[in-house]
Write a sequence for this structure.
């Protein structure tokens, strides 16, 4: 019998030591950011401190998620999880960007779009050089940008961001032009929408709401979203709504929201076969209806907007798809293999980039159809399939940035995987390349650090596979009592 003052473990609210230490790390991040320039070259000391704090926060995060898996938060734990996540977001919301500058392109695109111009028509360099045909109002806009247009990376390329992302950029510009805080405010709205949708999903699947901590307390997600100001989080509400609609067998509507997600970043289109396969279970008529809606919506979002028009030397999409590579692991192995084999076939190794991309694309598509064609045993299994496809897209990508990793997090809430969650600790090592590049030692990053990031994850994935998909007991599903 418990003493009168004791509580059972399930009734206790025990956040433990990880939370206050993580908050202290974010306080340190905020203090370090003050006075830091967000334009290259980045300060080496800042990079080391940022990387260290993110790695430490990542370890604390895993410890905290372990506590979630043991259901040690108590019935009111979700309140503490949400409050802690809000505190972490507030600290980063008002910090100065430290090692990224993509948001300058967002600000410029937003100003161009909200001004009534086509953001896909001219590159920043063409506007700065006052190229023939550039409207005078765009030149005036460049002068009003307070130097923002001069800070855009790859200024010779036109924007790569699809129409839905452009709408978000424009909204931030309408709220307050050239303001990083207005952009962060837009991100915050989508962040809270994701929070609500994840809670709804957990309830529908009868999973413990405290699993929300996997998303809401992730230090890498918070940092890349509110300090680096990357826009990937905009996809999450559309993706989650798409899957919820799919569970309700509203396949056409599900496809619309999936294409809206692709209107932020293109990769969600790889999930379309999952929707088509689910619609085929209902019948040919439902499948045909879904395909027609997909075709119409694809035309409206991507073709009519001009996003897929105007290829050429200034096309960001073309440059990205043909040659960009950074922090890749498995893709780098594929590339190395093709560059070794091609000369044996009297083919120039320079063709290795294109061939490697084709091979990686075939592997992703093949894996997608393998996953899609497996029998779906329930609603939970649908999220497992989605995670498997999204993880393949990320792990085979030629560019494996930390902000790409957060694509997995909404689905890891539903289907936790220790191996993939470990990337929260390892991905911040990516930032060390800025420090090493400044010292002329970028080879250390490409030859050593990249493998430190990913080899442990591949080994853990292999171990999970040997367990035949069964997660470690401490990462078990936490289903609510019926």
């Amino acid at each position: 019998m418990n003493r009168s003052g004791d509580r059972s473990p399930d009734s206790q609210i025990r956040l433990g030591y990880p939370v206050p230490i993580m908050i202290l790390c974010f306080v340190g991040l905020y203090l370090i950011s003050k006075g830091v320039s967000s334009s290259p070259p980045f300060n080496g000391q800042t990079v080391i401190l940022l990387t260290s704090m993110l790695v430490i926060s990542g370890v604390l995060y895993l410890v905290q998620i372990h506590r979630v898996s043991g259901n040690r938060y108590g019935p009111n734990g979700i309140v503490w999880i949400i409050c802690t996540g809000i505190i972490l977001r507030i600290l980063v919301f008002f910090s100065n960007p430290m090692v990224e500058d993509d948001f300058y392109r967002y600000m410029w695109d937003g100003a161009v779009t909200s001004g009534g111009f086509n953001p896909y028509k001219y590159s920043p360099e063409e506007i700065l050089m006052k190229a023939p045909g550039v409207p005078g109002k765009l030149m005036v806009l460049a002068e009003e940008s307070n130097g923002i247009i001069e800070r855009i990376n790859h200024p010779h390329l036109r924007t790569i961001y699809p129409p839905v992302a452009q709408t978000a950029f424009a909204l931030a510009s309408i709220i307050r032009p050239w303001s990083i805080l207005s952009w962060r405010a837009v991100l915050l709205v989508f962040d809270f929408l994701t929070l609500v949708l994840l809670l709804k999903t957990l309830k529908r699947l009868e999973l413990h709401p405290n699993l929300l901590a996997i998303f809401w307390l992730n230090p890498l997600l918070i940092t890349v979203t509110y300090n680096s100001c990357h826009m990937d989080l905009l996809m999450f509400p559309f993706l989650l709504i798409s899957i919820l609609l799919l569970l309700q067998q509203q396949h056409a509507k599900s496809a619309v929201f999936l294409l809206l997600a692709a209107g932020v970043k293109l990769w969600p289109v790889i999930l379309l076969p999952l929707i088509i396969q689910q619609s085929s279970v209902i019948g040919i008529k439902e499948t045909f209806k879904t395909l027609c809606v997909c075709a119409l919506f694809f035309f409206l979002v991507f073709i009519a907007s001009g996003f897929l028009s105007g290829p050429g030397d200034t096309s960001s999409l073309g440059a990205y798809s043909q040659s960009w590579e950074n922090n890749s692991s498995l893709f780098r192995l594929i590339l190395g293999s093709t560059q070794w084999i091609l000369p044996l076939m009297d083919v120039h190794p320079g063709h290795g980039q294109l061939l490697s991309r084709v091979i990686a694309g075939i592997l992703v598509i093949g894996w997608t159809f393998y996953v899609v064609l497996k029998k779906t045993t329930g609603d939970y299994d649908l999220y497992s399939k989605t995670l498997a496809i999204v993880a393949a897209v990320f792990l085979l990508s030629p560019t494996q940035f930390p902000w790409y990793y957060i694509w997995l997090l909404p689905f890891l809430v539903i289907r936790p995987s220790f191996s993939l969650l470990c990337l929260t600790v390892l991905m911040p090592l990516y930032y060390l390349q800025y420090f090493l590049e400044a010292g002329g030692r970028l080879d250390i990053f490409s030859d050593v650090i990249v493998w430190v990031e990913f080899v442990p994850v591949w080994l853990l994935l292999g171990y999970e596979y040997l367990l035949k998909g069964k997660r470690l007991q401490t990462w078990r599903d936490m289903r609510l009592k019926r």
Remarks:
- Residues 103-178 form one domain.
- Residues 11 and 280 are 46 Å apart (CA to CA).
- Confidence is low (pLDDT under 50) at residues 1-13, 471-477.
- DSSP finds 24 helices and no strands in the chain.
